[in-house]
Write a structure and sequence with these properties.
Helix content: 55-70%
Strand content: under 5%
Distance between the termini: 36 Å
Number of helices: 9
CATH class: Mainly Alpha
CATH topology: Leucine-rich Repeat Variant
Order of helices and strands: HHHHHHHHH
Largest sheet: none
CATH architecture: Alpha Horseshoe
Number of domains: 1
């Protein structure tokens, strides 16, 4: 279900108001939360990171592992396009991020950089 979010919700909202995505990110429904973050992928592909960063911030304190994985994945996708944007978000939030979210976000970092984040030495 959430794998189609980018192709349906995200593609539709790419050039429109992102409020529907932000409302979904405040849901209590696991799948609406996943759709919210996954639907930002088309925006990432066009180097528009605002929606992803906003939804990532909204989901920082979520307790579900599937959400942690999805947010970390989308942050990693931002980093593939603009590492400074990803690192800006991480530096502001890595201490508060769930471990799985952080691990997914820094998966492609050089080992020494991954260790710095994991050890809280950024």
């Amino acid at each position: 279900m959430d794998s189609s979010a980018g192709y349906i919700v995200g593609a539709y909202l790419a050039d429109k108001d992102k409020q529907p995505i932000y409302r979904m990110a405040e849901s209590i429904n696991l799948w609406e939360l996943r759709i919210a973050i996954m639907s930002t992928f088309p925006m990432i592909r066009t180097n528009d990171f605002t929606a992803t960063l906003t939804v990532s911030h909204l989901l920082l304190n979520d307790e579900k592992d599937l959400i942690h994985k999805a947010v970390g994945w989308m942050l990693r996708e931002i980093g593939k396009r603009d590492l400074s944007v990803e690192e800006g978000f991480l530096k502001a939030h890595y201490k508060d991020m769930p471990r799985t979210m952080l691990l997914y976000a820094i998966e492609k970092f050089h080992e020494k950089d991954r260790k710095r984040y994991l050890l809280g030495m950024v």
